[in-house]
Amino acid sequence: MLCLxxxxxxxxxxxxxxxxxxxASALRFAREGTAIMxxxxxxxxxxxxxxxxxxxxAAWVARQPEGHIPAIVPWGWNAALAASLLKVGVxxxxxxxxxxxxxxxxxxxxxxLLPLQPDSxxxxxxxxxxxxxxxxPRLVLxxxxxxxxxxxxWVDHALTPLDQQWMQKVVAAQQCVIAEPRxxxxxxxxxxxxxxxxxxxxxxxxxxxxxxxxxRSNLLLPDSQIASRVxxxxxxxxxxxxxxxxxxxxxxxxxxxxxxxxxxxxxxHISELNLRHTMGLVAHQYLAANPEAEGRALTLADSRLVxxxxx
Length: 311
Prior knowledge:
Low-confidence stretches: none
Structural class: alpha+beta
Shape: globular
Number of helices: 11
Number of domains: 3
Radius of gyration: 20 Å
CATH class of the largest domain: Alpha Beta
Order of helices and strands: EHHHEHEHHEHEEHEEEEHHEEHEE
Strand order of the largest sheet: 12-11-8-9-10-13-14
Largest sheet: 7 strands, antiparallel
């Protein structure tokens, strides 16, 4: 198995092109943070994509038995990653096809989740946003492909000229903008899954802290405690899983997480779909391997995982 850490995945997904070059900060994180993914695959060498060169690939390919297709497991699949691997000699038949990657990217367009988000809307014009502001005077506008707090814009009562310029640019590149009411967040949590050959396997829950969409930490708690704390019911989970089985499982292979928000009034809202590994999966696996860490916070600091007490 070739295990790759490419935390720049969301940036590559947003760009969409096979030749996108992520910023230096993202590539540095990839080099320095491989231990994050080693939590998921203990005992396996994890490499940043930039270190997978032609010499390494030639030796790795030569070690494979004839007719064997080895597993390539990245943090997340995108067109830029596949192009990089092809360039250094990974056989095309060992990679998802261009059509498959395009389909996976389209599934991660935020509009995919709209059937599960009755208060969210795909909009293309300032007039449509202004109509929503008449009912919800505080909105968040989201670029359909974005992550880690990028591609979000906070609107109070009216669109500014800068908001309108941003919106025009996003609509031109990504078809629309997703507008939804701004909520007072009491808790961020996720349901974690893995899809294999169309079968959906529930992995567990993740309770995490994010500030303006930027991930900060995970609280390490058993699944039953997280579900109880946020009030997530079996009926909610069954509804979500029925939708995933119908709309995602037939088309995607790999890990995924569905982020939710518990608002200050006790209502639960589905907020995001991630077709990749997530810090929630890392935290879940970390707690399974280190049960004595229960109740503490797993945090990222300088590309490293740090265990802190919960204040």
